[in-house]
Design brief:
Distance between the termini: 36 Å
Helix content: 25-40%
Strand content: 15-25%
Structural class: alpha/beta
Keywords: Acyltransferase, Transferase
Radius of gyration: 17 Å
Protein name: 1-acyl-sn-glycerol-3-phosphate acyltransferase
Oligomer: single chain
Largest sheet: 9 strands, mixed
GO molecular function: acyltransferase activity
């Protein structure tokens, strides 16, 4: 999901405007009872029963402390359940925050999304308060999920990434020097374009990208380089051959 573009918000708008902490703190939440229950059911019942094999590589690449942005490819609505399964509290002890479209935060689905770390963004006209909240999550050392392709794509090809994820990460690091924001690329591949019962899924978690490595020069140039490198990482993690060549993985088999 693209969250940030030059036409809507500048770095000075995002970082130099005082943050209203009362507003920010109410923008997203993790329910202390619903989130553990939902993740437990998903991890032990729903996902193992629905999928054939769930293969995961690279879990050692996820920091257990500090601000990180998970930047996965987006292949199915199942992604939002598989990410906590592969990287959430049972693996790292950390809960996740999701930046999601406003339309997905409506009705019964929205009730769950808003209580499991999700917060809405209008991708056409993202509000300053929403973007400030994302930066605030980084300063609090949270794990934030952003789908940088902007939508669901049913093949192995990584779609062109816009600069929103990179600009947000750079803005957070620029406004809080030494914060240590990292971006973790995640390639998600299903054995079928539209997952159904018995579908196999592979999640390849890449090495962290250090945002401070892109702080030299202008924000625009740094975001361009960071976006290009993130694209290359996602392409490597999403290539079908990577599913065959990986010799070590966590495997959950339906028996």
């Amino acid at each position: 999901m693209e969250i940030y573009s030059d036409s809507h918000t500048s770095q000075s708008q995002l970082t130099n405007t005082p943050v209203n902490h009362q507003v920010v703190s109410s923008t997203s939440r993790v329910s202390p009872w619903l989130t553990p229950l939902a993740y437990c059911l998903g991890r032990n019942v729903v996902l193992p029963l629905f999928f054939g094999q769930i293969n995961i590589t690279g879990q050692e690449n996820i920091p257990k402390h500090g601000p990180i942005i998970l930047a996965p490819t987006h292949r199915s609505r199942w992604d939002s359940l598989l990410l906590p399964y592969a990287t959430g509290r049972c693996v790292t002890g950390r809960d996740m925050r999701f930046m999601t479209t406003s339309t997905e935060c409506q009705g019964i689905q929205g009730w769950f999304v808003l209580r499991m770390g999700g917060f809405p963004v209008d991708i056409q006209r993202p509000a300053i308060a929403t973007l400030r909240h994302a930066v605030e999550l980084m300063t609090e050392g949270e794990m934030l999920v952003i789908f940088p392709e902007g939508g669901i794509y049913r093949d192995h090809n990584v779609q062109p990434l816009k600069s929103g994820t990179a600009r947000l990460a750079l803005s957070a690091e620029s406004s809080h020097p030494g914060l240590g924001v990292k971006i973790i690329p995640v390639g998600i591949n299903y054995s079928q374009p539209y997952p159904n019962w018995g579908t196999d899924v592979n999640l390849h978690i890449g090495e962290p990208i250090q945002v401070t490595d892109y702080m030299n020069g202008s924000l625009k140039k740094g975001a361009k380089r960071l976006t290009a490198d993130l694209t290359n990482k996602l392409q490597q993690l999403s290539h079908p051959q990577s599913e065959i060549s990986c010799s070590s993985f966590v495997e959950i088999t339906n028996s």
